[in-house]
Amino acid sequence: MLMEELFERLRKFQGLLMERVAIEKEIRELPKSIAAQEEVLTRARKSYGERSVRLEEAQTRVGQLRAELADVVAHKEKSEQQMDTISNPREFEALNKEITEAGLKEDQLRKDLKREDENLHEAEAEVLASETLITSQETEVAEKRTRIKNDESSMKARVSELKGLETETTTDIDSEVVFKFERIIKSKQGVGIVPVKGVVCSGCSMILPAQFVNEVRQSDKIVFCPYCSRVLFYQDSDGTQEDMIVDIESGSLADLDDFGDDSEDDGYDSDNDMDGDSDKDGIGDSDD
Ligand SMILES: [Zn+2]
Predict the structure, then answer these.
(1) Percent of the chain clearing pLDDT 70 (strictly above)
(2) Which comes out higher in pLDDT, residue 190 or 157?
């Protein structure tokens, strides 16, 4: 196989692989998209439990107060009836005292009952709200689960389709190369085959040893970048190569960084430093 064809195949393989990796990531993240709603549902169920307990307690208290009130009222009425049959002032005084106390207790109980009734209504409303929330969340979660399942199966179908195409594309490429290439794409989440521009790997912007660049240039075997492990191919960079070597020899890393921004560099300095302001003010003046 010609190197050019091999590189082309690797690029195609890279395209397929990147799509597959992205889809597989999406598949892994599908359950997360429903996690928030499931959490809401879990909390709603928990608070429904707590609210139900509170409702039961309020019901019990209201029942107790009603029973107590009925007793006190009955007792008071009985004492009042006894008033008709008293025979001396001492009995009257005792009975009168009982009636007064019963009256006070009745007032207190009615107040308590009123308060507890309000509590009871609140508790009922809260339980109802929880029930409504749970029902709507359950519906939503169920719908979303169905949707996720459908999405997942179409994504999985695409993944196996891609795997088929990958196998096709990589037939009669050395399996070790395929393995390494796949690993690079997965770990770098991006391109696995990049050009050497001048003496710099355009994948990681490192300067490569001259010997290495020669190997890449000879183009008779697959060469991996010793720094970023990407597959390298040589790209003629029309003339800029000499500039670059000068830069590298004279230069610091800063120069290299500048170079990394590449291609549109021509006239970079003059663009920024000279035209900048004068352009805006002096459209009419530019004749001279
Ligand atoms: Zn590299």
Answers:
(1) 81
(2) 157
E strands, the chain, in order? 193-197, 200-201, 223-224, 231-235
254 C-alpha to center of ligand 1: Å? Answer: 18
Widest Cα–Cα separation across the chain:
133
- Return the SS3 of 69: helix
pLDDT tens track for 229-276: 999 999 876 555 444 444 444 444 444 444 444 444 444 444 444 444
Given a contact cutoff of 8 angstroms between Cβ atoms, the answer to whether 103 and 49 are in contact is: no
CA distance 8 to 12: 6
DSSP codes of every residue in 212-276: HHHHHHHTSS-EE-TTT--EEEEE--TTHHHHHHHHHHH--HHHHHHHHH-STTTTHHHIIIIIH
Tokens coding 58: 């309020």
pLDDT at 87: 87
Give the separation between CA 212 and CA 112, rounded to whole angstroms: 92
By three-state DSSP, how is residue 200 classified? strand
How far, in Å, CA of 156 to CA of 144, rounded?
18
Query: What pTM does this model have?
Result: 0.61
- Is residue 110 within 8 A of residue 69, CB to CB? The reply is yes
- Identify which of 163, 198, 165, 183 has the alpha carbon closest to the alpha carbon of residue 230: 183
Task: Compute the distance from residue 166 Cα to the ligand 1 centre, in Å.
Answer: 24
Ligand 1 centroid from CA 182, angstroms: 16
